[in-house]
Amino acid sequence: DIDGARLLFQAGADCYETRSVISASNLESGGWGDVSGDGDMAAAVIDRIVHHGGILRFHGESYRNRHSLMR
After folding, report:
1. Fewer CB atoms inside 10 A, N or C side of the chain?
2. How does pLDDT run across 18-60, given as a tens digit for each residue?
3. Segments forming the whole domain that contains residue 48
4. What's the angle, vertex CA 39, arms to CA 23 and CA 51, rounded to 5?
5. DSSP letter at 53?
6. Domain count, the chain
7. Running DSSP on this structure, what letter comes out for residue 70?
């Protein structure tokens, strides 16, 4: 919801250029606006996250998925 998007933005803004941040998501960055309800705010959060950082993409089957099915 929009309140969650604002909280995420505030957390990112508070950490921006002062501490290290790691973020993990199973969504591509283009889908963050749909989830948060505010595409502009999602773009601002992504901009701050990647400004001094990078994006690591992992391909393949999920470790948790693979092992949760084994009983």
Report:
1. C
2. 888 777 777 777 787 787 777 887 888 788 778 887 778 888 8
3. 2-68
4. 45
5. S
6. 1
7. -
